Amino acid sequence: EVHNENGNFRVVVTKELPGERWLDILKQANCRVEVSKHPDTILDNATVKKLIGNKCDGVIGQLTEDWGSELFECLKSAGGRAYSNYAVGYNNVKVEEATKRGIPVGNTPGVLTETTAELAAALTLAAARRVPEADVFMRAGHYKGWLPTLFVGQLLQNKTVGIIGAGRIGFAYARMMVEGHKMNLVYYDPYPNKKLEEYIKQYGELLRHNGEPPVFCKRVETMEEVLKEADVVSLHCNLDKTTHHLMNKERLNMMKPTAVLVNAARGPVIDEAALVQHLNANPEFRVGLDVFEDEPAMKPGLAQCPNAVIVPHIASASMWTRSGMATLAAANVAAVLQGYAVWPKPDN
Ligand code: DGY
User: Fold this and answer.
1) How remote is the CA of residue 169 from the centroid of ligand 1, in Å?
2) Along the 348 residues of the chain, how does pLDDT read in single tens digits?
3) Which of 95, 171, 242, 277 is the most exposed place for a label (fewest CB within 10 A)?
């Protein structure tokens, strides 16, 4: 679909985006906007290259595309000057390949924070309280009446939630679990989160004033301490070389056999084959997964694990967030094309 046919700059958008603001921004920036006609398919490089064609000033691309030397070379040859990922994560982008060619890369931080943390919280509750298992049971007509032992799960209150990677999303999730569920907090991040540290102090005090038992909140020096101590562990780190298979067999075994593990970050942070083995060996261990190692595929056996709650990478899927992401991605591209974003950055 083509919008603003006579616009000066040709901008390719590789998937239809939600909301309307993003299109207005690009139109106002004098862009002719071409939206790909492949709504449901994941685009391979050949298809993206066809979309870029001979002249293309900027692209809004998806986390499912492989933005490396091949696509950036194609964009550069077409006169491209701007790329934005429609995502906060950019493990699908080789930023150095873009930088080499003078193409700045944008992402969409901020607007996903609360939405993603909410989904991580939803997965935590769903896994701890076995909601999807119970839902399947009901639909199958198995419910014959209340029983003391039916779908007994884990209470979160006064237990300990562990965060691996305490950036914006990790902090928002921690806040939900500490305030909403009165959980203790233990977090690991190589870099302390100042805001979280301040929050921890204040919130701990607040609880004491209310006469409730104090929550303990602390940062620890190793992720192993989190794994051993926490009843719930939620992953909120980036995917890079240092975090690939961060949760391997050995580390899974350090967790409590009744723990809940949540991943709304990136699939390859967990060794998924090892996780399937762990789930089978520990029926009371539960996992909530939004992302998968070989997305969209799952490792054999995962779909058959009743102790796994699995959803298709929907952590940022609220209307407000998805249109906010579109607005930011459009603003990223428009700013460069209109000359507001100076690149490479001047030295002073
Ligand atoms: C992201 O933005 O990185 C999410 O995975 C999708 O919104």
Assistant:
1) 11
2) 999 999 999 999 999 999 999 999 999 999 999 999 887 889 999 999 999 999 999 999 999 999 999 999 999 999 999 999 999 999 999 999 999 999 999 999 999 999 999 999 999 999 999 999 999 999 999 999 999 999 999 999 989 999 999 999 999 999 999 889 989 899 999 998 899 888 877 776 666 556 666 667 888 999 999 999 999 999 999 999 999 999 999 999 999 999 999 999 999 999 999 999 999 999 999 999 999 999 999 999 999 999 999 999 999 999 999 999 999 999 999 999 999 876 666 554
3) 242
81, 266, 278, 322: the active-site residue: 266
Mutate to test the pocket of ligand 1, among 63, 320, 322, 325 (most ligand atoms within 8 A of CB): 63
Q: How many other CB atoms are there within 10 angstroms of residue 190's CB atom?
A: 10
ipTM: 0.97
- CATH topology assigned to domain 2-109+319-337: Rossmann fold (3.40.50)
Q: Whose CA is nearest to atom 2 of ligand 1?
A: 87
313 is catalytic: yes
* CA–CA distance, 21 with 13 (Å, rounded to integer): 14
Catalytic residue flag (residue 266): yes
The domain made up of 113-310 has a fold known as Rossmann fold (3.40.50)
| Cβ of 52 below 6 Å from ligand 1 | no
Task: Determine which residue's CA is closest to atom 3 belonging to ligand 1.
Answer: 89
Handedness of CA 252, 271, 107, 288 (dihedral sign): negative
Cα Rg of the chain (Å, integer): 22
Parts of the chain belonging to CATH 3.40.50.720 = 2-109+319-337, 113-310
Distance of CA 13 to the CA centre of its chain: 21
